[in-house]
Amino acid sequence: MPNGMPAPSLPAHVAIIMDGNGRWAQQRRRPRMIGHRAGARAVNRTIDFCLERGIAALTLFAFSSENWGRPQEEVDALMKLFLGALDREVDELDRRGVRVRFIGERSRFSSGIAQRMDRAEQRTAGNGAMALSIAASYGGRQDIAHAARLLAEQVAAGTLLPEQIDEHLLGRHVALTDLPPPDLFIRTGGDTRISNFLLWQLAYTELWFTEVLWPDVDADLLQRALDDYAQRERRYGLTSAQVAAAATETVSP
Ligand code: IPE
Ligand code: IPE
Ligand code: MG
Fold it and tell me: Is pTM, for the whole model, over 0.90?
């Protein structure tokens, strides 16, 4: 969507930091892993919701580049959970027309997980009902650094001049460049920070935070986020009057 255009009331792309699994389990005096399992069920509810609403793209933060630093026991258990989910869910996602992809440093995962990620992507590549992107071993800074390296390689090879590098070109080398940038960002769990999620892609995204812990997420909560989004005026640096004028232009014959 060009800058200054009014937001359509439904976001085309929703990006979510699914936070609060550990605290959800702690509140129940259960191991953190119980929270991650309940979180996986909330992922399914969220995918269902977005498919039903006709949201074209959903990006979920499943595991950050910093999450590798958690206690080994938790990392191992999360890897097992990913493996199981990849084995269980991909058929159903494919059947429902979901195109799955993973962004982040795939080489840090075991070959079993990395191969399943490759296979899930290949298998669902032709689907068009919704683009589901899972950020796993993902960091926004790493994403931008990687894009810079790709451009530097082209300069070193003599196929690109430094003065040709601008935000549009760099923006074509970060993750998810084939999708519109997220319209709506949701973070559950009560913390109001980005935690190294899509730093580049979130430049003009509408941010929505909730105290609700990720395993408690349901359609009502997601609908509240959509309703809030629909009320917002996205100005992209322009004035409210300019945005209103652009809206009138687009509706007039
Ligand atoms: C988010 O929940 C899931 C991952 C980061 C893998 P947390 O595990 O961060 O839950 P809290 O924030 O400790 O409650
Ligand atoms: C962000 O949550 C990463 C994911 C949800 C995958 P964290 O729990 O890792 O973030 P911080 O540590 O609270 O910033
Ligand atoms: Mg957390």
Answer: yes
Tell me, yes or no, whether 172 lies in a domain. no
The preferred substitution site among 32, 67, 199, 213 for testing ligand 2, maximizing ligand atoms within 8 Å of CB, is 67
CATH number for the domain that contains residue 184: 3.40.1180.10
Number of domains in the chain: 1
User: Is residue 167 in some structural domain?
Assistant: no
Whether residue 164 is contained in a domain is answered as: no
2 pLDDT more than 50: no
Residue 134 domain boundaries: 13-139+180-251
Residue 215 in contact with ligand 1 by CB distance below 6 A: no
Q: Are the beta carbons of 87 and 161 closer than 8 angstroms?
A: no
Burial track 49-88 (b if 16+ CB lie within 10 A, e otherwise):
bbbeeebbbbbbbbbbbebeebeeeeeebbeebbeebbee
The alpha carbon of 188 and the centre of ligand 1 are apart by a number of angstroms equal to 10
Q: Is the CB of 23 under 6 A from ligand 1?
A: yes
pLDDT digits (tens, 9 = 90+) for 7-38: 579 999 999 999 999 999 999 999 999 999 99
Do the domain assignments include residue 165? no
